[in-house]
Every structure is written in structure tokens, then in C-alpha cells.
Amino acid sequence: MSNQRFYYAQINAENKVVCKSDLSGEVTEPGMIAVTSLDEFQLGDLYENGQFITPEPEPEPELQP
Amino acid sequence: MPISNSPNLAALQSSIIAAVTAARDNVKAEVVAKATETQNAVSAEVAAKATATQTAINAEVAAKATATQTAVNAEVAAKATATQAAIAAKSAIKSINRGTTTLSGGSGSATIPAINMSKAWLKLSQRSNTATEYRVNSQNSNTIDAASATNYDIAGRIASSTSLSFSNQSIQLMNGSSTYGSPVVEWEVIEYV
Questions:
Q1: Buried b vs exposed e over A28-51: b needs ≥16 C-beta within 10 Å?
Q2: pLDDT in tens, chain B (193 residues)
Q3: Which terminal CB of chain B, N or C, has fewer other CB atoms within 10 Å?
């Protein structure tokens, strides 16, 4: 088993990171962004112009009675 | 007048002594010169031979060092290859892929390198929950459900040889006590030889 690892940020149609992957092989699917480390972005970040941007947190909704 | 007192004899003695002394000095000078010449020649020959011998020894040592280093390198490489092959032969695991996926609208997915689905396990764990393992079914079906029994009811399956899919059918992940967040599932696919 090879020890080489491949790290990816998987984004959806809205360019939002929906998956952090540590894979055994290279993949070339659309939406798979190769990265050097899984620490350089977070789930929910937006991928824009080659950079990961953490969006502002959404306000908490009111509790329903 | 006795002959020993003759002035001619004294002069003759003096000239003989002078001639002998000169001859002796000449012989001495010649001997010294030849000795010096011989010494120089011997020294030069010895130095040349010493240099040649040293050069030959250096070349031989260098050649032997290179040969030894080459042999050691080859032996180390061969042993490393053999050890790696032995480790690979003993390992039953062909590949491991892992990740963390956010579900949205009740579903999520992940892309993986191509695997042999009939020899793969999908392991799911949800944050703050205990991991649960699931094995592929005995029919080697191409889509293998691995429903979790954790609190948040997230199911996962190997949807194809290159993709995983996840769903949460009824329960959203509660974030604290007042808001709901997106469910997050951590997964691992272990492919065996």
C-alpha cells in the first residue's frame, strides 16, 4: 500500500466546501480542489478565485413555540 | 756536504708534498662531487617512487572505497525493497480513503479514487458519536447500504466505485439547544487486497 496521500476540498455548485478528503489516489472530478493540507480551509468555506473564504456566520433563528 | 742537506733535495721534497696534497684535494673534491650527485639522484628516484607508490595506493583505496560503497548501497537497496515487499505482502489493506462531509437538504456525497467495491468497507462516525462499522453485503452488490444506528440517523453507502453518498432521513443535528446545524459525517473506506 502506497503511503502517498492526496488532499482535496470538495465543493458543490455554489462553490461551498462540503467535504474534506484524505485520499489514497488522485482524482480529477469537477469540484475536487487539490490542496496541500486539510488545515487550510473549513467545511462551509467558499472557494473563490483560488482562495478559501470563511463566510460570516448566519444569525440564529428564533425558536418556534 | 751530505746529500740530505742539499738545498735541491729540500726543494724537491716541497714540490713532491705540494703535488701530493693537490692530488689528494682533487680526489677528495671529485669524491665529494660524485657522492653529492649520487645522493641527489637517489633522493630524486626515491621521491619519484614514493610519489608513484602513494598515487597507486590512493587510487587503489579510492577504487576499493567506491566498490565497497556501491556494494553497500546495492545491498541496502535490495534489503529495503525486500522489506517493503514483505510488508506489502503481509498487509491485507490495499487503500484507505477518509474524509468529512457536510449534509445539506438531507443528503451529501464524496468522491474517492476507484476501488473494488466487493472488497471495501465503509466506516461511518458522526461527530460526538461512537463510530459504527459496516461491511459490504455478501452478494457484492454495487450499492451497499450502511445505515447507521447513531442518534442523528445518518446513512452512508458506497454508491459507486468512485463515490459515496450520505443521507439523514428524519433528524437534523441539533447544535446546542436553540439552533439546528448541518449534519456532519466522518467516513473511512478501507479497501482490502
A1: eeebbbebeebeebebebebeeee
A2: 666 667 788 899 999 999 999 999 999 999 999 999 999 999 999 999 999 999 999 999 999 999 999 999 999 999 998 887 787 777 788 999 999 998 887 789 999 999 999 999 999 887 543 333 333 444 444 333 333 333 456 789 999 999 999 987 544 444 443 344 567 889 999 999 8
A3: N
Neighbour tally for B157: CB within 10 Å: 20
Query: Cβ–Cβ of B101/A25 closer than 8 Å?
Result: no
CA distances to B4, B107, B144, B153, B165 from B127, in Å: 140, 17, 23, 12, 17
Q: Is B106 helix (H, G, I), strand (E, B) or coil?
A: coil
C-alpha cell at B91: 498487509
Which residues from A are below 8 Å from B94, CB to CB? 1
Distance between B141 CA and the closest CA of chain A, angstroms: 23
**Pick from B94, B101, B114: CB nearest A19:** B101
> What span, in angstroms and rounded, lies between the C-alpha atoms of B158 and A33?
21
